[in-house]
Amino acid sequence: MTSTVPASLTRTAEGAALQAVLLDMDGTLVDTEGFWWDVEKQVFAELGHELDEAWREVVVGGPMTRSAGYLIDVTGADIRLEELSVLLNDGFEKHIARGVELMPGAARLLAELAAYEVPTALVSASHRRVIDRVLDSVGHHHFALTVAGDEVTRTKPHPEPYLTAAAGFGADPWRCAVIEDTATGVAAAEAAGCRVVAVPSVAPIAPAVGRVVVSSLEEVDLAFLRKLITGTG
């Protein structure tokens, strides 16, 4: 985990209904979910296997160990999990080296959170090496804290990543708004006790208590997130 939490940010959060905003990366903040699937298809093609499109919904949003392990199991590919993880990360880095695009509404939301000094964290199942490369394009300055999948003992769908981020801000998870695009990430956030805005990217996500579903980040602003926490509106 990396953290550069200015004292002014944590002071601003004290006593506020909304204490922090925690964002997923792939498919939520940046348009990269398709990159992962493209890399997975390419790597397995080189191993002599064709991936079924139906498997995409199974692996989306999951940690590398789960997604890669699942694809090894269903294809029967002759490769160790550790070797496959390296190939996938290397392939993904080549894709993002060309630059990444923010999801619609993401730039405006990040700017608004910064303007109002809302503590903001990036919480991803991707590895640190990948997060840092993405942030080279997006801007490290948007986040006072980042949590990578290879920096926690148990990554999504376990609540540890979101509990780690909330603790890093000294925030109550129930007063943290999480923005996620997959069922795996939503499960992690809700298990941590956070309120969730789901912006489905690959597979649908149903509304639930403490969770709202939107079609785009263009529907989300600071007022929206404050209402999510207070239960008004």
Automatic annotation (TrEMBL):
Pfam families: HAD_2 (PF13419). Gene3D superfamilies: HAD superfamily/HAD-like, Putative phosphatase, domain 2. It comes from the Bacteria. PANTHER family: 2-DEOXYGLUCOSE-6-PHOSPHATE PHOSPHATASE 2, PSEUDOURIDINE-5'-PHOSPHATASE. This is HAD family phosphatase. It comes from Streptomyces stephensoniae.
